[in-house]
Amino acid sequence: MNSSQPLIHLFSKNPKGFSGITPSKVRYQIKHFFSHQDNWLRHQLRSLLTNKSPEYLICALYGHEHPDQEAMHPMSSLSINELKELSADLDKVAVEINLRQVEVNIYG
């Protein structure tokens, strides 16, 4: 995965192509099904990670650490390898909710 690209993309017919997912795009796509908070996906993923990942790593992922305890703070004792442990848990969540990577060839 390339961190310079959004994790999830939506296909649009006008203008034609893929674009990164945003709260407003999700709201537009599902407006006829139910209303929701813009950050419901964040809350859902946090719920799916609870009891699978240590709480301090989930907080680091979301930037919810306490002041001066941030994961990337110069004095933090959290290692990059600990933060990378989340990758396996995120992969498990993707399998659990049946996310699939789609490859698309755009012609023209």
Please explain how this structure is put together.
The protein is mainly alpha-helical and about 110 residues long. It has two domains: about 1-35, no CATH class; about 40-100. Helices cover about 40% and strands about 10% of the residues. It contains four helices and two strands; from the N terminus they run ββαααα. Strands 1-2 form a two-stranded antiparallel sheet. A hairpin with a 2-residue loop joins strand 1 and strand 2. It starts with 8 loop residues before the first strand and ends in a 12-residue tail after the last helix.
Question: In summary, what is this structure?
Answer:
By secondary structure, the chain is mostly helical. It is built from 4 helices and 2 strands.
Order of strands in the sheet with the most strands? 1-2
Largest sheet: 2 strands, antiparallel
Q: Which regions are unreliable across 5 or more consecutive residues at pLDDT < 50?
A: none
Give me the secondary-structure category.
mainly alpha
Give the rounded overall mean pLDDT: 82
Helix coverage percent:
25-40%
Q: How many strand elements?
A: 2
